[in-house]
């Protein structure tokens, strides 16, 4: 059953691979890109895929930094929760002064 659950990913991957191949075949014209200090001439598909790759790299770097900050904050908050639980447990176990006699025993009723 697990294999069937993830089989849609295979089909989706094959579909996108097929679409990329068709896109590459349809966009094989040579284009010139000027960077200001140099010029690059190459197939349009390389320019498109290169731009997509650079964009994905920039986004992943931005997301990774945010992810690390969030994980660091989560670890700090978990430590704080643990410390508060310990403090709370100690306070619950400590008897109130009014309920205990001076010798440490509960008053008899």
What does it look like?
By secondary structure, the chain is mainly α. It has one domain. It is 68% helix and 9% strand. It has a two-stranded antiparallel ribbon with strand order 1-2. A hairpin with a 4-residue loop joins strand 1 and strand 2. The longest helix is centred in the middle third of the chain and has 50 residues, at 44-93. The radius of gyration is 32 Å and the shape is elongated. The model has no long low-confidence stretch (mean pLDDT 81).
Set out the fold topology.
Layout: H1 2-5, H2 7-26, E1 30-34, E2 39-43, H3 44-93
Which structural class matches the secondary elements?
mainly alpha
Task: Using the CA coordinates, give the radius of gyration.
Answer: 32 Å
Question: Terminal Cα separation, in Å?
Answer: 65 Å
Shape: elongated
Helix content: 55-70%
Order the strands across the largest sheet as they lie in space: 1-2
Task: Count the DSSP helices.
Answer: 3
Give a nutshell description of this structure.
With 109 residues, the protein is mainly alpha-helical.
């Amino acid at each position: 059953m697990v294999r069937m659950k993830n089989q849609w990913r295979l089909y989706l991957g094959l579909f996108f691979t097929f679409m990329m191949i068709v896109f590459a075949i349809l966009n094989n014209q040579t284009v010139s890109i000027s960077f200001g200090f140099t010029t690059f001439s190459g197939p349009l598909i390389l320019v498109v895929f290169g731009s997509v790759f650079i964009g994905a790299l920039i986004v992943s770097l931005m997301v990774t930094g945010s992810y690390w900050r969030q994980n660091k904050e989560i670890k700090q908050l978990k430590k704080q929760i643990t410390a508060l639980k310990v403090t709370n447990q100690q306070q619950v176990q400590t008897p109130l002064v009014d309920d205990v006699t001076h010798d440490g025993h509960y008053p008899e009723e």
